[in-house]
Amino acid sequence: MTGSLTKPADPVLEQFEALLPEALEESKDPAAQRAAFEALRECGFPHRKVEAWKYTDVSAAVAGPFKRPHAGAYGLLLPEPVQWKILPDLPTVGSDQPFALLSLALSHGGIEVTVPAGTVVEQLVEIDLPVAKANTLLCPALSIHVGAGSRVDFLVRSDRQGGSSLLSWIAQITVEENAAVSFAKIRTGSGANFCHLQTRQAAGSHLALFDATIGGALTRNDLHAVLAGEGAELDLHGLYAVSGREHADNHTTVEHAVPNTRSRQLYKGIIGGHAGGVFNGRIVVKPGAKGTDALQMNRNLLRSRSAKVDTKPQLEIANDDVRCAHGAAIGRFDDAQIFYLESRGLDRAAAEALLARGFAGEVIDLVKNSAVRETLSGLAEEFFDRSETETAP
Amino acid sequence: MLKIENLTARVKEGPEILKGIDLEILPGEMHAVMGPNGSGKSTLSRVIAGHPDYEVTGGNITLTTPDGPLDLLELEPFERARARIFLGFQYPVDVPGVSNRTFLRAAFNAVNRARGTYPLDPLEFDTLLQEKIERLGMNRDFIERAVNVDFSGGEKKRNEILQMALLEPRLALLDEIDSGLDIDALKAVADGVAKLHTADNSVVLITHYQRLLDYLTPDSVHIMAAGRFVRSGGSELAREIEKRGYDWILNKAG
Fold first, then answer.
1. B45: in domain
2. Nearest CA of chain A to the CA of B151: how many Å?
3. Model pTM score
4. Do A340 and B92 touch (CB under 8 A)?
5. Is B132 inside any structural domain?
């Protein structure tokens, strides 16, 4: 192995390398997976001196040891005429994306879900990722393709994950011309969860994407959304709610590649206990992408003195004639609201709980699909119930 | 019902605003506290409710309850609410993301749990809420909306009255419940207060203008200036103020 000659031995990398032979044995494209591992060796696991990982320490998440069981089953609820098959080709990812590279190298394969052109799917399409038992490594992949002019709602859940597990997954969504898609991804469960999500929208399409992280030891969501056709619109909403010593990190890149596209982004974070939250939102306007209309907002509620959040917006605009705005807010409970609720008989803890629920409710209410909205509300409710006992500083 | 003795209070770390208030309110009475801006009348209602911006520097506030007298100054704001003191806000506060129904039910259950009543489930609560809404002749639609968010001035004040109807206070302090209302909204709010006022409870109206008193007739009117009651009398006092302005009394008192 040439790589080990040029770099000092890395015990973390070595334990994953030990899992490589069996991954390659199951593989349909061992060369691509081997190449991904070499790319991972080259880029290395991130440490906090790497800008993109400055606020997120992955060392505990990758410490292992991990077992790598055979791939489990996806939970699929696919109404007619939605189809699925085994993912034929592994996706490609950038050479600077260590967890996506890991996911490729040790891939458990994946599924591809297709909605034919010109169809309206009334019923919600539901996809559950396979079970990741405690102390295991799972690397699933999901590719969604929605044909031109179709309408469909997706709910993807990553919820069956045990303690000290590592789940690193890659998802891709392609939305063809004039299609209207809503896609909600909800991460609950334990362990560490790394998601690399890429979306690509053709002209006149609309994508409403909701990215929810509710609990979990460590979560990192890397989203790269490309508005690739004129008139494409993206509504991007996120909620991250963590407590205890949990940590949630959202990195979004919204790329306006052609003229006259629109994006609306609102992420809300609720951070309690000793937990940490990160939001890093990049808006990229490519040369020639005139008439871009991009809005980004990140709001955070800190529920305790020890909770921490880091938020950073980035605009990269390569031409004029665009409308881009962003903002970020980090707040604690509002005294006027607290007194109003106390004057109605709620004690301090109950008042804070109601305000935190309202803070989450504001973004959850933006979900149009009622089944998804109710699922999210229920999960948020469970989160608040279990995190309420630890609001002390 | 309520007895205030030589109450002095200030904004925390700030100047004294209440400079010795004495007031006794009996069950079934309605009092009006009137005064020019800055006289301390809103402060008085907030201090009774336990607003954290103020610090009581002297005196007593005692609430009479069937379980005996309560020293209000020993109680947290939520405990005062559970002792069934209600403060109707001059500027009701927005609570985004929380539906009015959720808020009202949380408040109702918090206050009634303290009374030993079993909390109502959403369905039982809805029946009760419907009854109160009909009694006050209110529109049902804003029950689904977030608390006070994008409510008109009139809707906010009527929402305060709805809360009063649900929480059934023994003492309601209504701080400028008439401000910012057109004549129809003013009538509706006054009508609501009149319906909720019984022989067993007491109401204190804090107001700058006499016009609310065209619809509600208090048993006592207190004129406040510079942190003191400078004159107390019957409802005819309010009409004097309407005719002759506050200067008349302030000059006389000075």
1. yes
2. 16
3. 0.88
4. yes
5. no
